[in-house]
Amino acid sequence: MASSSAVPASSASAVVAVAAAVLLLAAMGAEAETRKYQFNVQMASVTRLCGTKSIVTVNGQYPGPTLFAREGDRIEVTVVNRSPYNMSLHWHGVRQLLSGWADGPSYITQCPIQPGQSYVYRYQIVGQRGTLWWHAHISWLRSTLYGPIVILPPAGVPYPFPAPDEELPVMFGEWWRNDTEAVIAQALQTGGGPNISDAYTINGLPGPLYNCSAQDTFKLKVKPGKTYMLRLINAALNDELFFSIANHTLTVVDVDALYVKPFTVDTLVIAPGQTSNVLLATKPTYPGASYYMEARPYTNTQGTFDNTTVAGILEYENPSGSSSAANSNLPIFAPTLPQINDTNFVANYTAKLRSLASAQYPATVPQNIDRRFFFTVGLGTHPCAVNGTCQGPNGSRFAASINNVSFVLPTTALLQAHFTGRSNGVYATDFPAFPLMPFNYTGTPPNNTNVMNGTKVVVLPFGTNVELVLQDTSILGAESHPLHLHGFNFYVVGQGFGNFDPANDPAKFNLVDPVERNTVGVPAGGWVAIRFRADNPGVWFMHCHLEVHLSWGLKMAWLVLDGSLPNQKLPPPPLDLPQC
């Protein structure tokens, strides 16, 4: 069985490693710990699809190592950059309460860690338990530089569902035969779309449905009559994914490290950046068969995309002790996945997500709103340079924007500029709260598809209750856009298709038990409404987690001011904070 890392190891060992770590944490006392990790960012040679290339890894592993913690623990990760690239790491979904210097997005909260330099990320896990993940947050380096974050409840606190017998991370990714830094560099130079990936992966392995890849298959070995918790993470760069296991159901109990009311499905959908814990109950007796675990994209794009399917294999332990060769001759069943553009399936699935909203895990939805925002999100264009040749629509360059502003990364980190009071020339504070030129967002697109450039932020006083409606546009075709907000969780209080109706749609908002998360898909040709409380001072990135749209400018930032109390103020930066 092939490895999912650059260092040979069986995929079964991943289950053992997670189980051992869980048992170790369980044996520790109830007091919060400081857990220290050493992340050496280095190049490693990895072979997939009969081709070998050098990729960026942490500690030579692909995917990278799992970060384990309990709710309440403090984390220290020493990152040493031994790669040839500028580097920063983001701890996706970690609230970073009063620790914005550790959030990680390059030129937002820090300058990159330059080759040969190091930085220690220090933060605490507060009020979170479940599955998150870490990844590079600069250029397209996260295509191989990512790994799970497993957060257990405090010692002695059980899950609010039957405890599984085993648990393991299952990470979806994408694999390019070519260097991804060259892929995005070429796209940005030509103004066209980037070359699509050559395969999807499960725990770094493309699986048997691709040519020259049967030896690189993730295999999950299970026993009959057991329950396994799969910690699902979509680390793919550019695609939302359907996922299903043939002849088995999955019970969803958690999304984005937040418990939900459990519900059972045959198939789920997970956007880039999202996580979900699901319970897999195995068959009561040995079935004499194996089962594909498959993922393939959900998309409405009018452009090109990787229209392939990745498969792992669910294998049952044979009580007779038959050899693995005998197991390979068993029948293998494949699941039936939705059509690639099945938006109704996606809408029905997301409608099932509800916060637990219990006494122990309440849904503290902001009821009284201080500031309302309406952001359009979608694609647009930039004019081609004079005498230039561009490969975007009608000879232009692809762009993406929020409220028609395509975000330009500064050369100084926004948080450093804000904290030192040197924001002039770095960013402006006039990001539009509403579209400057309203139009029929999901109807006939306007003739002028150009967007403006800018480095603009929204300034919020500490404690502001925010309602934000995110509206997809059909300027260059309606698409789903997974939006990730750093520094906060938010409640998804409503969603729908067509244009948001401010007169009638708010009456349908769920303000009782809406799902809480950190990444949400803006429906293709529709809208989503979220609410959050700005209780975390600092500068917080919000961006599309489709990496190509992020590269084209679909991003912005919130600047939350200090509060009046000592525990509402951002501390000074650490002494080892990288400098630009």
UniProtKB/TrEMBL annotation:
The keyword Transport does not apply. The keyword Protein biosynthesis does not apply. GO terms for biological process: lignin catabolic process. Residues 41-154, 167-318, 441-562 form the Plastocyanin-like domain. Its cofactor is Cu cation. Residues 1-32 form the signal peptide. It is an enzyme of class 1 (oxidoreductase). One of its GO terms (molecular function) is copper ion binding. Lignin degradation and detoxification of lignin-derived products. This is Laccase. It comes from Dichanthelium oligosanthes.
